[in-house]
Design brief:
It is a single chain. The chain is α/β, with parallel strands linked by helices and 231 residues long. The protein has a single domain, classed as Alanine racemase (TIM Barrel, Alpha-Beta Barrel), CATH 3.20.20.10. It has nine helices and eight strands. It has an eight-stranded parallel beta sheet. The two termini are 29 Å apart. The structure holds pyridoxal-5'-phosphate (PLP). The site of pyridoxal-5'-phosphate has 13 residues, from strand 8.
Length: 231
């Protein structure tokens, strides 16, 4: 077995163990392989080892790797998306996880509408309060933007995404994930939204905590490929 296949199977075991600790089924948690900065042949290796859900944070890099990639692979955009690249994203990915402005969603809606297709979205929330992080800061900003997005016919808001605080303090990390769970519940009851289920939370350093708190999708790069080459 190659190193990537071995790493993936270890991650799957850790996902199963974390789910079990929380009284959840491992099937409730999807594993996304984050391939930013990794070359196409390693992405292919992850696919061969069984990975089907992939994440990228730059559209140009995503196009290079995923145009003409396997039909049954699902790609999500997880990095900040500039409005002028919305058309390219809409043509390439199944879901944009990093929506934190109505304007970005509006640009995606325009492109999806003319292409006659629809797109899943997650709204990104800044749960840590760190200035360097993307995402909605306040609940009110999130609600206002979601109301505008709900009027856009070709976009389907499916849930929330966050990057937890960058810290070794597990309590602080857990607090970020709990905030996301609480916000999803608030959105569901306020708007009676069906299918607003996704909680994209947890990365290499904190995905087990995220699963214990209710994550439905963990985004893992380093634990699959090893440390990323520095830019
Ligand atoms: C890079 C990245 C990840 C993966 O991070 P690792 O620590 O390598 O697992 C997850 N989510 C987002 C938004 C990222 O940019």
């Amino acid at each position: 077995m190659g190193m990537i296949a071995e790493n993936l199977s270890k991650i799957v075991e850790r996902i199963e163990a974390a789910a079990q600790r929380a009284g959840r089924r491992a099937g409730e948690v999807r594993l996304m392989v984050v391939t930013k900065t990794q070359p196409r042949d390693l992405v292919g290796e992850a696919y061969s080892a069984g990975a089907r859900l992939f994440g990228e944070n730059r559209i140009g890099e995503a196009e290079e790797k995923y145009r003409g990639f396997h039909d049954d692979a699902e790609l999500h955009m997880i990095g900040h998306l500039q409005r002028n690249k919305a058309g390219r994203a809409a043509a390439l990915v199944r879901c944009v996880q990093s929506i934190d402005k109505t304007e970005t969603a509006a640009a995606l809606e325009k492109h999806c509408s003319s292409a006659g297709r629809s797109l899943d979205l997650l709204l990104e929330v800044n749960t840590s309060g760190e200035a360097s992080k993307e995402g909605f800061h306040s609940d009110e900003e999130l609600f206002t933007s979601l109301e505008e997005i709900l009027a856009m016919e070709h976009l389907r808001p499916r849930g929330l995404m966050t990057v937890a605080a960058l810290t070794d303090d597990k309590k602080e990390i857990r607090r970020c994930f709990r905030r996301l769970v609480a916000l999803r519940e608030a959105v569901r009851s306020r708007y009676r939204l069906e299918g607003f289920d996704e909680l994209s939370m947890g990365m290499t350093s904190d995905f087990e905590i995220a699963i214990e708190e209710g994550s439905t999708l963990v985004r893992v790069g380093t634990a699959v490929f090893g440390p990323r080459p520095s830019p």
